[in-house]
Prior knowledge:
The chain is mainly β and about 160 residues long. It has one domain (about 5-150): Immunoglobulin-like (Sandwich). The protein is built from no helices and 12 strands. It has strands at about 5-20, 25-30, 35, 40-45, 45-55, 65-70, 75-80, 85, 90-95, 115-120, 130-140, 140-150. A 4-stranded antiparallel sheet has the order 2-1-5-10, with no helix packed on it. It has a 4-stranded antiparallel sheet with strand order 9-6-11-12, with no helix packed on it. Strands 3-4 form a two-stranded antiparallel ribbon.
Amino acid sequence: MADSELSASIILADFANIDQSGKLNVVGGGISLIGYEFQQGTTTPFTVYVRVVARVPRTDRPALEIVLADASGDPVQIPSPTGELQTMRIAQNVELAAPSLPGVSIPPGAIPSSAAFAINFSNGLPLAPGHSYSWRVQIDHDVIASESFYIPVPDPGPVLG
């Protein structure tokens, strides 16, 4: 498959959702700095929005992966609820068939096939402040998009005494 047949976009936001009609609703979109809650040891809440577009419709339901990577490109490991480390990865087969809407005629090729996902991390993630990370979108293990972000460390402030 030619690279130009698939593309993806990633938006990091304070919050986002996709409504019943497929419209994206975003608050604080386009961020590249994600805050850190030192009391909880996690980032502040945030959302990863991913839209995959197929210029040519596909019927094979390719494997989509959204993977969190560190600055060196390695997948990030975070503790599972049982305490075991696991890769921060979301995966599923994705439908990229020709768009259709009941009661509406859409000519072939009028709009591309697409699939969209809003992944809300309402409790943040246990990532280290002072480091860069990136979200990668992969289709059948090929990276088609990535978006980097940084978790800042606050200035130390004045020393008294």
